[in-house]
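Q: May I have one protein plus its fold?
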Amino acid sequence: MARSANITEGSIIKPLFYFFFPILLGTFFQQLYNTVDALIVGNFLGKDALAAVGGTTSTYLNLFTGFFVGLSSGATVMISQYYGSHNHKRISDTVHTSITLALIGGLILSFLGFLTARSSLIFLQVPQEILDLSLEYIYIYFGGLVIMLVYNMGCAILRAVGDSKRPLYFLILSCFVNIVLDILFVYIFGWGVKGAAFATVIAQMYAASMVMLSLYNSEDALKFRFRQMKLDKTIAAGIFKIGFPAAIESILYSVSNLVISAKINEYGVDVIAAYTAYGKVDAVFWMALQAFGISITTFVGQNFGAGKMDRVKKGINRWLMTALAVSIILSVVICLGAPQLLMIFNSDPAVLSYGCQIVLIIVPFWFTFVPIELISGSLRGMGNTFIPTIITAVGIIALRLIWVFSAGNIDLIWLFAVYPVTWSVTSVAFVIYYYSGMYKKGIISLQK
């Protein structure tokens, strides 16, 4: 596999960084899709339109895409373990089953999204003045969901064997397509919010076509052929066994965030717009952390598949310390530059004031989420996803819901404090679960 990377030999940190940076840049350009939408919509169409494409709308869309991305992690783990053990036949079978699942899953989730969008946003108390704008964006987005899920699954396949560069190249090109189309549709054609949605969908379609073309032209076990598409029962069961808990975890995250978004909606458009702008700044941290998480999952998957547990443990410890250092540096930079960063998205004084408050409440505690992401990502590489999902469900989701529903009429400081509090509690639980050795009981090995 010429473009894949075997990270089961030699240095530990060097190949992790070699894998990390393309993923980091890739997640940056992935986030740039929504950020460009926010920039153009917020500056050309105003704060109502900005609130319509962000806040509850963004969280609602993540409910669907996040579920499938979680499920696709099952394919990533299986392929990385098969790659570590040099089982090329099973890699090929997993590739074709995974793409088939992406197509079927995309159709099902699109249907559910169209069916539930309006009632969900009304239930979540989206302000009436932005409801129609939000739905306009959502319906177009769901129209391209199948292609987006195929793209995500294709990237998961490539990254599972250490190929993090091609997904990056495809994203960079499609991001430029998105920027050009955003300007064309929103600013020049005057299509409003729907123009931003069309730009995102078309750009994602371009990225998906590039990923699938790369799989089609592969000359190794990743080679894809439409006539070989199938649902191998054993592989599909393995993907669901490993990926379904992660998918449920993603849904629970989104549900808890939707509950918080519904609470935020009670404070009006200014706070919604501020939270949307903060979300774009906040994405810097999550991009880095996601890259750390994907890197360690692939590293652990390959080395676990090769039977090198000592290398697995060293990699987890060193990567955890590295991620903690990076998160602290990012926190300091974001806190110091908050007003200037938020002003990029909207210069309304009220929006800026609320946005700075949110930054100071949440950002200094980013580091508390690092053990959650890296330890759960490491355990995922070993096929252990059930208990991590339970820890997350109790420590973050349940505690958030209790916090919000029992709070009544609280000010913004206490509302947003729910993030650092739940991160801290859950992080402690993950550290105890992993370093006590209890995680070993939940390992799923594919090498039999």
